[in-house]
């Protein structure tokens, strides 16, 4: 489990095409400290497994399913990425419950800068819109954020200077894709309510 509190802005150093998969080599001195084979690291909100670890770099294999459902397929050598290790048991939950299982992708539609913050408008797939509510939580490229405005096919988030400086959202431009993970609690509530309706028939 992750919390959506990005630990560092890492970098893709190589991408190898394996046909029905890709192997990524990524640099991140913070998340590789103490890393070992089989550990999980979230890359732009996608939970990946460490295959190899050397120095401040690690490699991870990404299957076609993940490439199709996320924006990882658009990454190339030199791309910057948000990195986070799983939260430790007993640690503070600084963001919200994040699984690292991307539900879909959106795209940056608009950036509205202000003196002390910036509003970013992001497109929202129709099948995810029902899970996104004003003042609710959403994960964008692995970043735990609070929804400012929720429309039928978009949402907005307000970013402080720290988030802009330390994550990929400070670099994204209109048209750039982002990974989205909606609040898992909302999905469970929907499923439970549906089961209850069916049981009452």
TrEMBL record:
<protein>
    <recommendedName>
        <fullName>Riboflavin synthase</fullName>
        <ecNumber>2.5.1.9</ecNumber>
    </recommendedName>
</protein>
<keyword id="KW-0677">Repeat</keyword>
<dbReference type="InterPro" id="IPR017938">
    <property type="entry name" value="Riboflavin_synthase-like_b-brl"/>
</dbReference>
<feature type="repeat" description="Lumazine-binding">
    <location>
        <begin position="97"/>
        <end position="193"/>
    </location>
</feature>
<dbReference type="Pfam" id="PF00677">
    <property type="entry name" value="Lum_binding"/>
</dbReference>
<comment type="pathway">
    <text>Cofactor biosynthesis; riboflavin biosynthesis; riboflavin from 2-hydroxy-3-oxobutyl phosphate and 5-amino-6-(D-ribitylamino)uracil: step 2/2.</text>
</comment>
<feature type="repeat" description="Lumazine-binding">
    <location>
        <begin position="1"/>
        <end position="96"/>
    </location>
</feature>
<comment type="function">
    <text>Catalyzes the dismutation of two molecules of 6,7-dimethyl-8-ribityllumazine, resulting in the formation of riboflavin and 5-amino-6-(D-ribitylamino)uracil.</text>
</comment>
<dbReference type="GO" id="GO:0004746">
    <property type="term" value="F:riboflavin synthase activity"/>
</dbReference>
<keyword id="KW-0808">Transferase</keyword>
<dbReference type="InterPro" id="IPR026017">
    <property type="entry name" value="Lumazine-bd_dom"/>
</dbReference>
<feature type="domain" description="Lumazine-binding">
    <location>
        <begin position="97"/>
        <end position="193"/>
    </location>
</feature>
<keyword id="KW-0686">Riboflavin biosynthesis</keyword>
<dbReference type="InterPro" id="IPR001783">
    <property type="entry name" value="Lumazine-bd"/>
</dbReference>
<dbReference type="InterPro" id="IPR023366">
    <property type="entry name" value="ATP_synth_asu-like_sf"/>
</dbReference>
<feature type="domain" description="Lumazine-binding">
    <location>
        <begin position="1"/>
        <end position="96"/>
    </location>
</feature>
